[in-house]
Task: inverse folding
């Protein structure tokens, strides 16, 4: 019975790994195929080629699109963390009237579907003169990442031991010093986990990027991939689309693997008890 349970457990793990990894593996295989080879079910391409990768960068400003996504995701994440640290300290450590209401409003904003705020955000960006610019995308993405970051960090901040704060207060430290010198070092794993999730959210954002950009030079990679076109009006260049998907996904996978320990520590940081 124990052996059967162990075999079943390993089979379950193998299925989960296969289910998670196979789509990315198939994208890599498809990116190395051209012509009729794209419509074969070969798990290993018979005549692998990197033609799709070269065509991707030679026929459109894909390198610029990657840079745009990196800038938008990095700046959005930095602003979100900076603002959410202050907000989480107020919501998680300070007692004031309306704290619960404010928390629920932040949670409610994060639950709105993008399409519900699209028209209002469009008017705001157009009035601000930020249409078809990276600044406009950063402003739009903040409505997705900021409530999420604030809500998550508030939970972490609220679970930190009170003794840390009380000792700093006795030593005469002001609130800003308490946050920067006492809480931030303890919250480092939580900040890494939250920042990475916010970065991925901004990196993969599609609807705002499609609506608020017009020129090829200002597009981010999700929009650039969606608008890749073939030689004819009815041709779908699957090889180049898969190549672009691999290029865009690989850095995120490497980033997650590199920060794996920090992420796990950050996701369990809320379990600290005072």
Result:
């Amino acid at each position: 019975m124990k052996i059967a349970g162990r075999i079943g457990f390993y089979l379950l793990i193998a299925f989960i790994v296969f289910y998670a990894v196979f789509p990315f593996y198939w994208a890599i295989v498809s990116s190395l195929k051209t012509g009729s080879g794209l419509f074969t079910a070969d798990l290993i391409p018979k005549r692998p080629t990197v033609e799709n990768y070269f065509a991707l960068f030679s026929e459109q400003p894909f390198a610029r699109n990657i840079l745009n996504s990196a800038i938008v995701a990095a700046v959005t994440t930095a602003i979100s963390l900076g603002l959410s640290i202050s907000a989480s300290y107020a919501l998680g450590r300070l007692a004031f009237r309306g704290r619960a209401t404010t928390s629920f409003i932040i949670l409610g904003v994060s639950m709105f579907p993008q399409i519900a705020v699209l028209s209002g955000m469009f008017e705001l960006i157009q009035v601000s003169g930020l249409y078809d610019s990276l600044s406009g995308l950063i402003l739009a993405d903040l409505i997705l990442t900021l409530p999420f970051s604030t809500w998550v960090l508030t939970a972490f901040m609220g679970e930190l031991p009170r003794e840390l704060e009380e000792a700093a207060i006795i030593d005469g430290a002001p609130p800003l010093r308490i946050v920067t010198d006492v809480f931030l070092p303890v919250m480092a794993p939580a900040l890494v986990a939250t920042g990475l999730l916010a970065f991925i959210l901004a990196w993969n954002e599609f609807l705002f990027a499609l609506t608020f950009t017009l020129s090829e030079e200002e597009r981010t990679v999700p929009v650039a991939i969606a608008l890749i076109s073939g030689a004819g009006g009815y041709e779908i260049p699957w090889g180049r689309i898969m190549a672009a998907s691999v290029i865009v996904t690989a850095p995120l996978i490497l980033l997650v693997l590199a920060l794996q320990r920090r992420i796990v520590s950050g996701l369990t940081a809320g379990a600290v008890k005072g």
In short: The CA atoms of residues 58 and 238 lie 17 Å apart. The mean pLDDT is 85. DSSP finds 13 helices and no strands in the chain.
